[in-house]
Design goal:
The protein contains twelve helices and nine strands. The protein is an alpha+beta fold. The protein has two domains: 88 residues, Phosphorylase Kinase, domain 1 (2-Layer Sandwich); 279 residues, Transferase(Phosphotransferase) domain 1 (Transferase(Phosphotransferase), domain 1, Orthogonal Bundle), CATH 1.10.510.10. The strands form three sheets. Strands 1-2-3-5-4 form a five-stranded antiparallel β-sheet, with helices on one face. The chain is globular. 40% of the residues are buried.
């Protein structure tokens, strides 16, 4: 057994996951055809063999090796994988700014600049996801476990950072080949919280790309709450679930596919921050698209038509996403079709191209007034409704735009 070419290895583990990531420095002579940081740092992900079977690991490696050739800056590149009797190892390019979940723990002043950055970064993630979805014309390629912890941040001076999709293959990236009509794929798993409603029984057929779109919609909603209310608002939203692992979808048809608390939060945002004195028409338009086009049930019929169409296309062309005509869907009594990744990117393009004054941010009392309602509302707190203290709303005469959402000081 030869030693690995590491000249530096961080023994500190990320305790939030059974698959631990470590920072390492690899000797430059052992890296070819990859653009790494100047100090040749990489991320080494360790997975206990008891958590992932050899078959699953091999399938993940195959998916990662294929995804490696997707030309997209907003996808973290896979370098190589190897294993020992006790652990599987995956080596990726290093992102030095942590992940999106960690970004959401920080407070940023709600501003035109912050909203622009957030929407541009969400659009970049969607563009990366589109390239991933459309990369392999011989089948379906999708992520399978989109969540804030799997969106990494690469920092640059004077900027909050660039977001990159990561973890494409750590037992949760899937490749379906259709050459003989046989699916070579692992059962869909994904993190429970970001699973779509068609995954109620932990496994479902249908449109696997639609799973990614639902997860993306959940993250966009959380992103919007963080922009408006900061980490304290996002904490209250997360606390409104009766279980930390509870997914966004529910079983009460009166609220559509969403949990009561999620529907309540969307309604609150529409009636306050995005009401008559709208704080951000850009975020309002994005929330409307997510609520009506993404966080909906998906009948999965597009998948079959899409695959049939894919076989007919030239192997050099990306798969073309098809939708069923509205009249046909009505006749077949189908549920509403979830937007695909190209629909989402068109929505982002339309929002980002809007040059109207105050479209992205309009300074005013809407966010402050809305936040005060959040603190008073038992409905929005959910299982945290017995909480006796919360983020303290400043009472000095500063403009709301300079004090919100930085409201993180708690009462002592």
């Amino acid at each position: 057994m030869c030693p690995l070419p590491f000249i530096g290895y961080n023994d500190t583990q990320d305790g939030e996951s059974s698959a631990h990531a470590r920072k390492a420095c690899i000797h430059r002579n052992h890296i070819k055809d990859f653009q790494l940081n100047e100090d040749f740092t990489v991320a080494v992900k360790e997975i206990d063999v008891r958590d992932v079977s050899d078959k699953t690991y091999r399938a993940a490696i195959g998916a990662l090796e294929l995804a490696r050739w997707v030309e997209e800056d907003h996808l973290v590149k896979f370098i190589v994988g190897f294993k020992t009797p006790e652990r599987h190892y995956l080596i990726f390019q290093w992102a030095d700014g942590g992940n999106l979940f960690q970004i959401w723990k920080s407070s940023q002043r709600c501003s035109n600049q912050l909203i622009h950055w957030a929407i541009e970064q969400m659009e970049s993630i969607a563009r990366g996801l589109e390239k991933l979805h459309n990369f392999d014309p011989s089948g379906i390629f999708y992520h399978g476990d989109l969540k804030p912890e799997n969106v990494f941040v690469s920092t640059r001076p004077g900027h909050l950072g660039d977001l990159q999709i990561a973890d494409m293959g750590s037992a949760r990236a899937y490749l379906t080949r259709m050459g003989l009509g046989e699916a070579e794929t692992m059962p869909f798993a994904g993190t429970i919280r970001y699973r779509p409603p068609e995954m109620k029984n932990s496994h479902a057929d249908g449109n696997p790309r639609g799973h990614d779109i639902w997860s993306m919609g959940c993250m966009i909603l959380e992103f919007i709450i963080w922009i408006l209310y900061g980490p304290d608002g996002l904490e209250i939203f997360n606390g409104s679930f009766d279980n930390a692992a509870r997914p966004f979808f529910g079983v009460d048809r009166g609220h559509g596919p969403l949990q009561h608390n999620v529907s309540n939060w969307i309604r609150h945002l529409r009636e306050t921050c995005f009401g008559d004195d709208c704080a951000s028409r850009a975020l309002r338009d994005l929330l409307d698209f997510v609520h009506t086009k993404i966080l909906v049930e998906d009948d999965g019929i597009e998948n079959n038509k899409q695959l049939a169409n894919t076989r007919r296309q030239n192997s050099l062309s990306p798969p073309r996403l098809l939708s069923t005509p509205t009249t046909t869907r009505k006749n077949l009594r189908l549920r509403q079709r979830r937007a695909d990744i190209s629909d989402l990117n068109e929505a982002f393009e339309q929002i980002l191209s809007n040059k109207e004054a105050d479209y992205f941010y309009c300074e005013g009392p809407a966010i402050k007034d809305s936040w005060e309602l959040v603190l008073k509302s038992r409905i929005l707190h959910g299982r945290m409704e017995k909480r006796t203290t919360g983020p303290e709303v400043p009472t000095h005469s500063s403009s709301p735009s300079t004090i919100l959402p930085i409201l993180a000081q708690r009462k002592q």
